[in-house]
Design goal:
single chain, alpha/beta, Rossmann fold, 2 domains, 7-stranded parallel β-sheet, two-stranded antiparallel ribbon, 14 helices, 9 strands, about 40% helix
Length: about 350
């Protein structure tokens, strides 16, 4: 059976990729950062996976990892807003490490095939586009992350490796998300195509058994037409899954380039990976809340000031600064309600 290296193996998509590879009998080597969350994820594989903890920026480690493998699935990356907060680190992880990985693969007596995950942000703004984006369309990367992915795509095409490039649509983790001001910077009408992380993983793993159909090609992986939304619509579905009422348009910003709809007909025809829709995903997210989801439907409305306090766009629309004291009072109210409810759960 083929030997596969997975970078970013404990991540949102990577963990599901490793799960599938193990299920299918591949010999798996995995690498991710030495963090508590990564160690917790890796523990579920036991001795069925050769796990390494370290950074893909460590060239010596990368050379060791690619030795004697048939396939490399390169998922390790820094994503926004991290690529904007620390641009040097983002470039090191996303570009320099990928360059080193390519070189290490090319140096092997029998170079492995390399699968690289790029982004649906690579085409740039989507406010004047009608249909889903196609892999052969001209790209216009508009932020650090998409420019870094575009540079990596170019490196792969100029390399001597058998390579597969997947531009993946929005793939959130199955977990209640941490609230960040960043999530409000997107335009409410930005086009987003949801894809379940397990479906992304299925497409990637299924691709390993195809050669002519995928090698040397750029394909889009997405959830299909039934999973296409506008950003505000999708975010309000997310908040609704956590018992929080819909947010007004004023909460959102003006960025139109961090994701898009993608034409995944070709990839679906080859890889047959689209299984889940957003409704199923949000049921899973709600279930992750456990018993707290029954409490959230009562206290969710009181959290609206907390949510809006994170949005500079809403504050600007209201002509005032975020009312942080009100947000703190809402948090206190919510915490008291949760504490009181625990005795009934």
């Amino acid at each position: 059976m083929k030997r596969v290296l997975v970078t970013g193996a404990c991540g949102n998509i990577g963990a599901h990729v490793v799960d599938l590879l193990v299920q299918r009998g591949y010999t798996v080597r995995a690498v991710d950062l030495d963090r508590p969350g990564c160690r917790k994820t890796a523990a579920r594989w036991g001795d069925r996976v050769e796990v390494h903890f370290g950074s893909v920026c460590d060239e010596a480690l990368v050379r060791e990892l690619v030795s004697d493998v048939d396939h490399v699935i390169h998922l390790a990356a820094m994503v926004p807003p991290g690529t904007d907060v620390d641009q040097a680190a983002g470039y090191a992880v996303n570009v320099v490490a990928t360059r080193s990985l390519i070189a290490a693969c090319e140096a092997q007596a029998k170079p492995p095939r390399l699968t690289f995950t790029s982004t649906a942000a690579i085409w740039g703004r989507n406010d004047q586009v009608d249909g889903p984006r196609r892999a052969n369309e001209e790209i216009s990367p508009s932020d650090n992350y998409s420019r870094q992915k575009a540079e990596c795509e170019a490196m792969l095409r100029s390399s001597s490796l058998d390579a597969v490039i997947f531009r993946i649509a929005m793939t959130p983790p199955v977990a209640p998300g941490a609230l960040s001001p960043f999530v409000f910077d997107m335009h409410p009408d930005m086009r987003v195509e949801f894809t379940h992380p397990k479906d992304q993983a299925l497409g990637i793993v299924n691709s390993l058994v195809f050669d002519e159909e995928v090698v040397g090609k750029t394909l889009c992986l997405g959830g299909g037409a039934r999973n296409r939304y506008r950003y505000r619509e999708f975010m309000n579905m997310a908040f609704g899954a956590m018992g929080i009422p819909p947010l007004p348009k004023s909460a959102f910003g003006d960025a139109l380039f961090l994701t898009d709809w993608v034409d995944s007909e070709s990839s679906q025809a080859i890889l047959d990976y689209q299984r889940r829709d957003a409704a199923q995903y949000f049921e899973e997210v709600s279930a992750e809340l456990g018993a707290a989801r029954y409490v959230m439907k009562y206290i969710g409305p009181t959290l609206t000031p907390v949510i809006l306090a994170h949005s500079r766009h809403h504050a600007r629309a209201e002509g005032k600064q975020p009312r942080i004291p009100d947000a703190y009072r809402a948090i206190t109210t919510a915490r008291r309600a949760l504490k009181a409810a625990k005795s009934y759960l």
